[in-house]
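Hi R.,

As promised, here are both runs. First protein below:
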Amino acid sequence: MKKLICVLICLCILTAFAQAQVSNEQLKAFAIETVQMMVDTAVQNEIGYSAPYWDVSKLDAYQIRGGALITLTAEQAEALDSFASDDACALAVVAMFINSQFSKEYAELSYVLTQQGGNMGIETGNGMIVWLMYDYHICLCYIHADGSWESALLMSDLNVLRGFSPEYILGRIDTLQMPGGVMLEMFE
């Protein structure tokens, strides 16, 4: 029920801004709401992680330690979309690949908690990624050009948080072999 209420609230908020240019703060707020949906899903379905730091059910979605907004070109959005499969959205596949390098348990948890939705009334040009840093998690929220969206969690830790910078983000994007440079804006 909480998940449905969150989605309805997001729909109301985002529909109101459909005609206007979406601000970075609105995109950030939407990404936070998707994290809260993941937390609510983990709590509701009693999905936990054996190590308390990485237990999503204990994550406070509003305790962001840093973040970034990545504006994609059409070519970059197409490259990211190519990761999607018949069974999973692009970020679910990317998160599974990255998280599996560190913890199979967390990778499976993240995969199950991946959120996605239809047109939320946001038009972003070619697409945008909101990157939110937490102490032990990273949320990636990909808002497609048509307003559909998807969000997934990546495993993180305090060392990653301390090294969080434009160079760090660009290095991670390079591992995905995204064509061309990206437009990147950092925020607190």
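And here is the second one, sequence first, then its structure tokens:
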Amino acid sequence: MKTKADLDALIPTLVDLLTSQDHEIGASYYEQGEDGWGVCHESATNYFCYEEDGWLIEVTYECCGEWDNDPGDYWTPPSSDLRKAWGEVTEILVSHYDDDTDEESEFEEDDLKDLWSAIDKELEDIA
């Protein structure tokens, strides 16, 4: 049976694997509404899955960014360059199945706080 300590030992590996992913990044922009100008976020949903040694770890997170958009002209094609990007975890599901003992370990929300925090910290500044 796996414990929170076993899960915490995986945090550096999981953070490294997640940050090496090619994140889908939404857009953040200013828009005028009834109350004046405000920031709008159109986040993109991302999914990361780790399946190894009986572990099943699924992380869902949102990414957003500030883009420099150039509409282009007759001679120059349109372009879009990412200036800054960030993300935030929205859900983590963790379980472990041991083939030898036929036991499944489920992890509760309290068990995931350190993992959640480590991933959120890493996603604060993607680009």
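A quick note on the second one: The two ends are 38 Å apart (CA to CA). Let me know what you think.

Best,
J.
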